[in-house]
Specification:
The protein is an alpha/beta fold. The chain is built from 17 helices and 26 strands. The strands form 5 sheets. Strands 2-1-11-10-12-13-14-15-16-21-20-18-17 form a 13-stranded mixed β-sheet, with helices on both faces. It has a 5-stranded parallel β-sheet with strand order 4-3-5-6-7, with helices on both faces.
């Protein structure tokens, strides 16, 4: 039996902890991140994350799960690096989730510590949740002193210079647990290794030709796998990140001109807002070499407008939490006649096929489930071996997406096996929303689907059958009921009352009839909500 040489293993390791550290050795004084008026170089970002990582170790945290409950910020990026450098596992949390969903993530992942923005800690439900779970709490930002029993991030990052933390975990060890939105109301925890994520970062850099000369516009949240890949892939190559904590079209247009942003990644609805903004004609966009989009199809007319007035090279990147993005890239500029649901071809290192339910690989023009193989595949779902096994049937990773290869080798995405709705870049579980609606005493039956929307890509639409003698219940009452129990992005954009839902003989709702019969519900000339 061949033995493992520990010295070689340490030298050859693949670790997310090394991304900023190695960038700092290559070009210490180069700007790594821009956030508003703030700028931080690679060496400073590396040193600050080392100090925070050392503080975590001083608190006894090595090999633990540590969450971030943060908007985009330099501190958030530093905290991610500190978690990896101290040999811990990162658990990103979607800040738009309701308190119950956040509690599920923190409890299910067995999180022991959390980095949280001060305004979020001020939310009573979140503060009570963190105290109830007994989490070590590091507070980011805020104008007031950190609450008693918590640690201020700035104090940790400005400690006396730390000694190098040495070799933390790497290779196939667990690096992060990122939660999906879930189709049954409870999110699945997706476990990734250092190697699987690092492979995705290299693939991202290669697929979009990133170099140290790029300035990458990062506006999507870092707790999403797509933005994490783009941001860390940029730092891996030595590029600079322009980081925004939210989307403001005027601010983004000004930043493109001021910072000479070369690679922009936005949702289709964001590009639409940029194109329609009155400042766009006067903005110098000549620095843009690439406009990337994802999470929703892009209308042909918008795509043509972006290519004409913003950037000639427009590409779609796809992937999923389980198969860290990107998995496929569609070069829209090379195929201007194709529809927005074309996913293109696999990135280098990833193999893609279309499979039927019996595991048979299908040819061009045949419809089946999109499956992948590659080094960016996840380790499995935490505490869910059955779901892990189901995702690995027949030796491929199963995406749950339906598609087919066209004659030219491009992948055409057709539908989702499950009724997951993507609205404004967020995944919405129809089953979860239906359960909330059915909890209202006036609701006898409910079905939720995603319908085309000119701003959100897809919008959540609910169809409700009232109980007898409940005619007084209206849309506003149900929307208020949903807002109390769901994240903002999960609340329906429309609730329609119907006499009955279309059903199969076996009693299952035929959602395709609801979709096909209401495709114009959110037509461009309708009032946006």
């Amino acid at each position: 039996m061949q033995t493992i040489d520990p010295e070689r293993a340490a030298i050859a390791r693949v670790s997310l902890a090394d991304i900023v550290r190695r960038g700092a050795r290559r070009h210490p004084d180069k700007t790594a991140v821009i956030q508003g008026e703030r700028r931080i170089g690679f060496a400073e970002l590396d040193a600050g994350s080392e100090r925070v990582g050392e503080a975590l170790r001083d608190q006894g945290f090595t090999g633990h799960r540590i969450a971030t409950l943060c908007l985009n910020s330099i501190e958030h990026l530093s905290a991610i690096q500190a978690i990896h450098k101290s040999g811990n596992v990162w658990v990103p949390v979607n800040v738009q989730l309701d308190a119950a969903a956040i509690e599920h993530v923190l409890s299910h992942a067995e999180v022991g510590a959390v980095f949280i923005d001060a305004p979020l800690l001020a939310v009573p439900a979140l503060r009570a949740l963190i105290e109830r779970l007994g989490l070590l709490t590091v507070v980011i930002g805020g104008t007031q002193p950190a609450p008693e029993g918590t640690l201020p991030f700035d104090a940790l990052a400005s400690r006396a210079p730390a000694q190098p933390l040495g070799a933390p975990g790497g290779d196939d060890e667990l690096a992060l647990i990122m939660y999906t939105s879930g189709t049954t109301g409870k999110q699945k925890g997706v476990m990734h290794s250092h190697r699987s994520v690092h492979g995705a970062l290299l693939s991202c850099a290669q697929s979009f030709e990133a170099t140290e000369h790029d300035v990458v516009g990062s506006v999507l949240p870092l707790f999403h796998c797509a933005q994490h890949t783009i941001s860390m892939g940029a730092l891996l190559t030595g590029a600079t990140i322009w980081l925004a904590s939210g989307f403001d079209p005027a601010a983004m247009l000004a930043a493109i001109e001021r910072e000479r942003i070369s690679w922009l990644s936005c949702l289709p609805m964001m590009y639409d807002a940029l194109m329609k903004h009155p400042q766009r004609p006067a903005t110098d966009l000549s620095s843009l070499r690439l406009c990337m989009y994802g999470l929703a199809p892009i209308p042909k007319n918008l795509l043509a407008q972006i290519r004409s007035d913003m950037c000639a090279d427009v590409r779609l990147g796809t992937g999923q939490t389980e198969m860290y993005p990107p998995t496929m890239v569609y070069r829209a500029s090379d195929h201007p006649g194709k529809d927005g649901n074309c996913w293109g071809m696999s990135v280098a290192g990833v193999e893609t096929a279309v499979m039927d339910d019996d595991g048979r690989l299908l040819g061009p023009g045949e419809i089946g489930e999109i499956v992948h193989r590659g080094p960016n595949v996840f380790l499995g779902y935490i505490k869910d071996p059955e779901a892990t096994a189901a995702a690995r049937r027949f030796g491929w990773h199963h995406t749950g997406d339906i598609g087919m290869f066209e004659a030219d080798g491009q992948m055409l995405f057709l539908d989702r096996k499950k009724d997951m709705i993507k609205s404004g870049g967020e995944n919405v579980s129809s089953i979860k929303l239906e359960a909330v609606l059915l909890a209202h005493p006036a609701v006898g039956a409910a079905a939720v689907v995603g319908l085309p929307h000119p701003h959100w890509g897809e919008a959540v639409a609910a169809f409700v059958v009232r109980r007898p003698a409940a005619e007084a219940c209206g849309e506003d009452e149900l929307l208020a009921f949903c807002r109390e129990r769901l994240g903002r992005f999960e609340v329906p954009k429309s609730i329609r009352f119907v006499d009955a839902l279309p059903m199969t003989p076996t009693g299952k709702v035929q959602k395709f009839q609801l979709r096909s019969g209401h495709l114009e519900l959110f037509a461009p000339d309708a009032v946006l909500r």
